[in-house]
Specification:
elongated; four-stranded antiparallel sheet; Jelly Rolls; HTH_46; 2 domains; alpha+beta; single chain; Arc Repressor Mutant, subunit A
Amino acid sequence: MGNSNKRSIIEKPLESIHRLMTAFVSISKPYLLDSKNIEARLKGKDAGFDVYLLTKGRVDIWREVDNRLVETAFAPSILGLQGSVYRSQHYHLKFPAGAEVSTIPLQAAMEIIELQSLWRDVFYYQGYLNDRQLHHESMLINSSTYEIVCLFLKDLSHYSDSERAKLSVADYILQRSNLARSGVMKVLADLRFGGYIDIQHGKLIKILNNFPRNY
């Protein structure tokens, strides 16, 4: 078994994101959210591409083919700069209650980027997104149930206390993987019994100790 304590650190290019956000904000429009989760798509059937600017909260990115949650992005984040027909058809966004989002047409965003010479910032941000995707794919390839559970627990431990309080540990892992519920629950129970994690009412409070190499 590989070392389940390993974690890649991927730095978010905050300076580039803030420069892009500042450039877009003057022509962006608020995206109205209500008290419930709301879905959005990067491209409507008869509309052009939109770019979403997340300034508060989080957004979950779901894959259509297997209804799997493939990524969660926290503010500040920008979604839709790729303008990819493939992505728009195979993924959709879910904004939980409390998120603050505005939108701008992709074409307008591209014009601003060109006018203000912001391509370097786009390059840095897209590189970060590609690294995040690679990170999640590598978590699921050639890994045991135990290793995957440990990796997702570490990811969840980096959420704020208020965000973790909204999320079931088991659902968090199951929505992001193809693991069987019985296997996930057994690993969680064993880690809790061994004193490695503190879970209360199904929510992760904290990781108490480094996970054992072997299971």
